Amino acid sequence: MNINDKEFLERKERLKHLIRQLKSEEDIEKVKEELKNVMSDVDPVVLAFAENELVGEGFSREDLMKACDIHLLLFKEKIENPDLKVPDWHPIKSFQDDHRVILRLMEKLIEKIKELKKMKDFESGKSQIEVIEKILDALMEAENHNVRQENTLFPVLEKHGIEQPPAIMWAEHTEMKEQKKEMLKLLKDRNNFTFDEFCNKMLKLANLLFEKFALHTQKEQNILYVTALSVITEDEWKDIKEECDNLGYFKVAEGL
After folding, report:
1. How far from the centroid of its chain's Cα atoms is residue 147's Cα?
2. Helical ranges in the chain per DSSP H
3. Which residues contact 90 (CB under 8 A, 6 or more apart)?
4. What pTM was estimated for this model as a whole?
5. pLDDT over threshold 60, residue 2
6. Cα separation of 145 and 96, whole Å?
C-alpha cells in the first residue's frame, strides 16, 4: 500500500481520530469497540504512521499503549478461540491448548507486576515477588510446548520440503526463552536497582514478552499449522502424537 494512496490516508486519519477519542475518554466503550473493528484488519504500516504523527501532536507512549492493548486483545481472542479446528486427539489441539495456558500465565504475570508497583518497597511487595517468580518458573517449564513442536512437528514439515516457517518459529522460540531468562535474572538481581526501576523494567519486559507471544501464536495458527495440515498425512499425525506423548506435557502448579 502506497503511503500517499487515498485509502492509506483515510485509514490513517480514521485511526488517529479514534485514538484521540480514546485519550479523551468520551464514550470509551463505544470507541474501544470501533477501534477494535478498525484494527482487526489494519496494516501495521498504517498503525506505525498514525502513531508517529500522534507523537508529533504531543501524545505520550502511555497514551498509545491504550490502542496497543486493544490490538493485543484481538490476538488474545484469536488464541482463546482459534479459527483452526481439529479433533481433540490431534497434536495441533494440544498446541492450541498450550497457547491458552501460556497466555493466562503471561496475563497473570503482568497483573502481579502492576500490583507490585503499588507497593512502597521490596519488603512490602514480598508476596507479589514470590508469585512473579513462580509464574516465571512456570513459563520456563512451558518451554516443553516448544520442545514438542521442534522435535516432532518441525522435522516432518522439513521432510515435506517446508523449511522456512519452522526455522522462523524456532528462532522466535529462542528469542522468547531469552526474554524469560532476562526477567529471571532481573528478579535475582533486583537489589541492584531502586524499587521503581525494578518494577518498570519488569513491566516493560513482561509486556514485550506478551506481545511477542501473541504475534508468534498468530503466525503458528495462520501459517505453520495451516501448512502442516495441508502436507502431513494422517499416519504422520498419529506418529507425531505418539512422540509428543513420549516427550510429555507441562503442567501448571495449582493456584497459578
Report:
1. 18
2. 6-24, 28-39, 44-56, 61-80, 91-117, 126-141, 143-148, 154-159, 164-188, 195-219, 225-231, 234-247
3. 237, 241
4. 0.74
5. no
6. 10
